[in-house]
Q: What sequence folds into this?
């Protein structure tokens, strides 16, 4: 399993950015996928989840209405469209695959992350 | 409440045992999973479910749960276990929740 994030960089407050995660080593369409972020020196924060067929989508309250998760199963890719970015969105953004076990989901594989810096 | 609470830091002597705890109401209904994160690295799943280790995770890592508290135990801590450890679960709304993390120092 390999997950590779891209699209990070420096953006001004109020700006937009689109992150991508390219997956390999597993049947991408069969698994829920997620974005998790980590502000510099801080802990982990779940951002969003999407089911294999995109029928189930969920967001943390901190990003609801500003971020949009999507996926392209034909291209084995996961995306996060981030609009109206705030300074507090500055973080490393990780793509994480879900494992479904015992009626519960767990983040079993993670990418190396991509850094988003929101600053004027 | 959907919060998970962890002690900020613990220390353990090399070869000894340390327990890291995670408290939250959601843990009465859902299992916690545990992640190890070394500086500059992505989180690594070490425990999921009742007490399951992914392939490649040493058996010195184990988990238990009682009431609203989940625990991760490292039996015979090694120098390479020095890291931040995070618990994770879900709340009743399906949101995924992380604890604030525990920094483990191996002396």
A:
């Amino acid at each position: 399993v390999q997950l590779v994030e891209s699209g990070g960089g420096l953006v001004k407050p109020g700006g937009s950015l689109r992150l991508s995660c390219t997956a390999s080593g597993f049947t991408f369409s069969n698994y829920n996928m997620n974005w998790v972020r980590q502000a510099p020196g801080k802990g982990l924060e779940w951002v969003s989840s999407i089911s294999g067929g995109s029928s189930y989508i969920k967001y943390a309250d901190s990003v609801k209405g500003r971020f949009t998760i999507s996926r392209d199963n034909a291209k084995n890719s996961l995306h996060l469209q981030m609009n109206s970015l705030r300074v507090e969105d500055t973080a490393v953004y990780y793509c994480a695959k879900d494992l479904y076990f015992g009626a519960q989901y767990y983040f079993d594989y993670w990418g190396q992350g991509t850094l988003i810096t929101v600053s004027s | 409440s959907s919060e998970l609470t962890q002690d900020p830091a613990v220390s353990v002597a090399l070869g000894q045992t340390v327990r890291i705890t995670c408290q939250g109401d959601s843990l009465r209904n859902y299992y916690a999973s545990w992640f190890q994160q070394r500086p500059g690295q992505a989180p690594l799943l070490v425990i999921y479910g009742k007490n399951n280790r992914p392939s490649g995770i040493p058996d010195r890592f184990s988990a238990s749960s009682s009431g609203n508290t989940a625990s991760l135990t490292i039996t015979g801590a090694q120098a390479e276990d020095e890291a931040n450890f995070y618990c994770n679960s879900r709340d009743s709304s399906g949101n995924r929740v992380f604890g604030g993390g525990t920094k483990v120092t191996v002396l």
Remarks:
- The mean pLDDT of chain A is 97.
- The first strand of chain A starts at residue 2 and ends at 6.
- Residues 42 and 91 of chain A are 9 Å apart (CA to CA).
